[in-house]
Amino acid sequence: MDTAIYLIIFLPLILFLISQRRNQKYMVHQIIIRKKERVQMQELAKKFIDKKCIIYTFDHSQIVGILRQVSDSGVLVEGSSGVEAINLDFIVRIREYPRNKKGKEKTLILD
């Protein structure tokens, strides 16, 4: 009886921890693969210097700000909360902030 209770309580916890570990290994593997693509992302990011951009990262977050500098390992973004440094390995997509027909910045962005 005691063994069955322990299995019911701890088995889901152990399975959850194993799946979390697997996800972490997958993310690290993807970062290693992306290091080969870093040079290409650097060249593309240089085209957005001094423009207001939306930067999408691995963990599905978005950073909005003006791209100030691109270096070998990261980019500097000046946003509303100050200057941020973002590692190029974690950047998935860079997009110029969309504007409407009159040239004003859009208030609603649907991705």
Fold topology:
Layout lengths: L1 H33 L3 H9 L5 E6 L4 E9 L3 E6 L2 E6 L3 E6 L15
Antiparallel strand pairs: 1-2, 1-5, 2-3, 3-4
Question: Can you give a write-up of this model?
Answer:
Helices cover 38% and strands 30% of the residues. It contains two helices and five strands; from the N terminus they run H-H-E-E-E-E-E. It has helices at 2-34, 38-46, and strands at 52-57, 62-70, 74-79, 82-87, 91-96. A five-stranded antiparallel β-sheet has the order 4-3-2-1-5.
Distance between the termini: 52 Å
How would you sum up the major sheet? 5 strands, antiparallel
Shape: elongated
Q: Please state the structural category.
A: alpha+beta
Q: Residue-averaged pLDDT, rounded?
A: 84
- Helical segment tally? 2
